[in-house]
Amino acid sequence: MSLFKQGRYSGYLRPISYIIDLLILNVIAVFYLFKESYPFAFLALISISWFFLSVYSHFYEVYRYTRPISILSLIVKQFILFLLVIFAFSGLYHELNMYPKPLFIYALLCFLFITILKYTIYYLLQKYRISFGGNFRTTVIIGVNKKTLALDKFFNKNPEYGYSHKKTFNLKNKTDSLEGCFQFVIKEGIDEIYCSISELSNTQIADIVNFADNNLKILKFIPDSKEIYSKKLRYEYYDYIPILTLRTIPLEESVNTLIKRVFDILFSCFVIVFILSWLTPIIGILIKLESKGPIFFKQSRNGFNYKEFDCFKFRSMMPNKNAHANQATRGDQRVTKVGKFIRKTSIDELPQFFNVLFGDMSVVGPRPHMVSHTIMYAKKIDKFMVRHFVKPGITGLAQTSGFRGEVETDKDIIGRVKYDIFYIENWSLLLDIKIIIQTFVNAVKGEDKAY
């Protein structure tokens, strides 16, 4: 077994690359363009413009299967856009005495160092995968034809891309079956499933999609002339082999992850400093005056990638043995008078901003469930596990759409999963802000299921 990380994502690599690139831009500006002064307006401009340009040009979207020529294309595109921005800035601020030639040399130096860094990281990662077997993803292929055999060969002949191919299943062979494939995927901890559409029936495709969603597996298709789905699919190339990705998740992009994390940290710090700092002693005294027991209630819940974490709340019930197993119901005798108020106004959820600060949760996301309920719903509700592709939230689209509180019927949890999946596939910072505002409005107005 490898001692090195296997994970699906290189979560820290892109943010670190981004920070190093910004350092290169600023250091060269200080030592080459401005040797005696430090024009902070220019430094701020190049940092902010670099961020937005990189988002626009997808500069940091370099994957393990990206070809070197594609990286060069990204670099050239970013270079031209960045050059236009700094030339425009120099034209507006004549007092800085920035001339075209020094600016062009500055940009050239920046991109020389950034190009060297980008290719160094790219090839070092390949060397790391070949020599140490780290940063790899395990794969299986379902279906045998020319395209799947080519992909099988690609995985086995190119270890630098970081794929460890375990098995190719031929469903037309009586020795292989779809159920056997599923058991193999679970037993071997497979990360990604690749399917040839031409080798599968519509029923088999539906079964594979459901299995992948319910077991947190990445599912990709090798396309052919058969129509698969009406939804938008992401089109990629592994060498010269076309691949379709079933579900695109905006928060898998490092830039989006960074934006959401920065927002979470700033928002949670604001709430902790300006609200919880004075509200906690008041709520704590009220809870203690009414009943014996701790001020805070801690409960294990499932979060990102199905990992368990301790979710914090203000205690709203009398201490009881069933608190970790049974949800609060309408007229629940366990709920205290103070608890009824803080649950109605959602004040009991505020300590979860510490969970956000610690990185277990986000301000907005699918609401986490008790471990026992997660296990139950995963077995009976289709696509329930898709919710765990992102961090859980204090509030979410499902909660602002009428699916908060107690799950009284299967219709409630099905509706919640529907809205959660929509949020995961259509995330944006503006959507988060809209959900936060709607949550505040609902808390002030009061909701029927807030009990």
Structure description:
The chain has 451 residues and is of the alpha/beta class. The protein has three domains: 13-132, no CATH class; 137-248, Vaccinia Virus protein VP39 (Rossmann fold), CATH 3.40.50; 254-445, no CATH class. Helix content is 51%, strand content 12%. It contains 14 helices and ten strands. The chain has helices spanning 13-33, 40-57, 68-92, 100-132, 146-157, 178-188, 202-214, 254-290, 337-344, 352-358, 371-380, 397-400, 410-425, 429-445; strands at 137-142, 163-169, 192-196, 218-222, 234-238, 241-245, 296-302, 308-314, 362-364, 393-395. The protein has a six-stranded mixed β-sheet. A two-stranded antiparallel ribbon has the order 7-8. A two-stranded parallel sheet has the order 9-10. A hairpin with a 2-residue loop joins strand 5 (234-238) and strand 6 (241-245). Helix 1 packs antiparallel against helix 2 (40-57), helix 1 (13-33) packs antiparallel against helix 4 (100-132) and helix 2 packs antiparallel against helix 3. The chain is flat, with a radius of gyration of 26 Å. It comes from Winogradskyella psychrotolerans RS-3. One of its GO terms (molecular function) is phosphotransferase activity, for other substituted phosphate groups. It is found in: Membrane. The chain crosses the membrane at residues 12-34, 40-59, 71-92, 104-125, 265-287. Residues 260-444 form the Bacterial sugar transferase domain.
Principal-axes geometry comes out as: flat
Which structural class is indicated by helix and strand composition?
alpha/beta
- For the largest beta sheet, what order do the strands appear in spatially? 2-1-3-4-6-5
Stretches with pLDDT under 50, minimum 5 residues: 1-9, 225-230
- For the residues shown, what is the average pLDDT? 84
Number of strands: 10
Q: Helix proportion of residues, in percent?
A: 40-55%
The domain count comes to 3
Query: What is the N-to-C order of secondary-structure elements (H for helix, E for strand)?
Result: HHHHEHEHEHEEEHEEHHEHEHHH
